[in-house]
Amino acid sequence: RDVEVGIVGAGPAGLMLSYLLHLQGVEAVVLEKHSRHHVEQRVRAGVCGQPTVDLLRDIGLGARLELEGLPHHGFSLRFDRRDHRVPLTELTGKRITVYGQQEIAKDLIRAHAEKNLPIEFEVSDVALHDLDTERPCVTYVDATGNAVRLRCAAVAGCDGFDGVSRHSLPSGVLTVYEHEFPYAWLGVLAHTPPSHGELIYAAHERGFALHSMRSPELTRLYLQIDLGDRLEHWPDERVWEELQRRLDTVDGFRLREGPLLDKSITSMFCFVAEPMCHGRLFLAGDAAHIVPPTGPKGMNLAVADVRRLAYALHRLLRRCDPEPARTYSESCLRRVWCAQQFSCQMTAMLHRDPDADDFARRLALAQLRHTVSSRPAAASFAEDYVGLPFE
Ligand code: FAD
Ligand code: DHB
Q1: CATH number for the domain including 305?
Q2: How many Å lie between the centroid of ligand 1 and the Cα of residue 76?
Q3: Where are the beta strands (DSSP E) in 228-329?
Q4: Which of 3, 26, 192, 208 is 20 to 30 Å from the Cα of 267, by its Cα?
Q5: How, if at all, do strands 289-290 and 260-274 pair?
Q6: 180 neighbors 269 (Cβ within 8 angstroms)
Q7: Does the residue 122 lie in any domain?
Q8: Of all protein residues, whose CA lies closest to atom 11 belonging to ligand 2?
Q9: Is the CB of 46 under 6 A from ligand 2?
Q10: 51 ligand 1 Cβ < 6 A
């Protein structure tokens, strides 16, 4: 079989790329190892920056987000047991929207179905070949057990951090930059209304906690936990007790408790692979870079990558113009490092580093205080948080 672009992975990057290519008349096939149900139910990102929201609206997929997404014009940094609001809209003219990543996945998958655009779920043994040539190919086993060979003009590796694409490059091509923080996040989804109208990022001597939400009925919460800690050490009662302690305020804030629907652990690390392309393989999203989740940037970076990639592939395959493809990596990496810097700074400012001395802890507190008390500092922080506009 022939197709212009073979896309590995049906996360936000792969699905969005496929749809953007379709809008430009370039045909693609998305290959996903999990089922449609799995992709649509997986609890991941919750915060969409304005550029992502604008793009969804511009391509005609913003209707449900408009209706069900929760626009937020600010959030709280909670420390010293008090709230310090960062008024995002007042400072930047922009907002963020709380709308689950899996809702974006559902919207994109439905749009594919309506237009008969191919997504193959439950494929296995995906392998990439001849990436150095102008006719790379992807082999895989489809859901019914048939071995398939897909000849392409380009391959997009949108298969996340643990995918096959990045590892298909010859050794020596990629330079990898990594950093790991000495703690992790425990994330829970609770069937209870949010206890506050906005997100709360809390810095506490026992560690970081985050109050977020998914809908008027669903609260999303995160707790900093020790590296190597395990889910079985966190029965529901302990989760609530620790959240209540860390989110406590001088005026007696209490979280509304409720049944936990999901509980998972996320490690906190940074990763960048450079360059983001080689021959006819283009990496996008988590396949090329991971930022720590404190700054809600990962999904938004994935969307920024594929917006650029769709343009580059259209120019390459339809206009015989290789220039945007040649500069794809360089232009994405500028945004990636900017987000990396912001997310690392926000992570360090809010978490309790078990290896840090008291001096470093005082510095983190000073930075928090500066961020909320200097208007230029708050404006700069808010601008990074809502997301830089797409170029
Ligand atoms: P993924 O979503 O990982 O998708 C990759 C897809 O490829 C998956 O469907 C996978 O099944 C598939 N795949 C993998 N290997 C193969 C293979 N061999 N063959 C076929 N298919 C394969 N980002 C934000 O912007 N805002 C937030 O609020 C936010 N919060 C987060 C909270 C948490 C707890 C976590 C963990 C992340 C958060 N992120 C957030 C980051 C965001 O979820 C990711 O950056 C985003 O999912 C990246 O999208 P992607 O399409 O690149 O990769
Ligand atoms: C959520 C995740 C984040 O990483 C963040 O910074 C804010 C909110 C969330 O899942 O709701």
Answers
A1: 3.50.50.60
A2: 26
A3: 260-274, 277-278, 281-283, 289-290
A4: 192
A5: antiparallel
A6: yes
A7: yes
A8: 46
A9: yes
A10: no
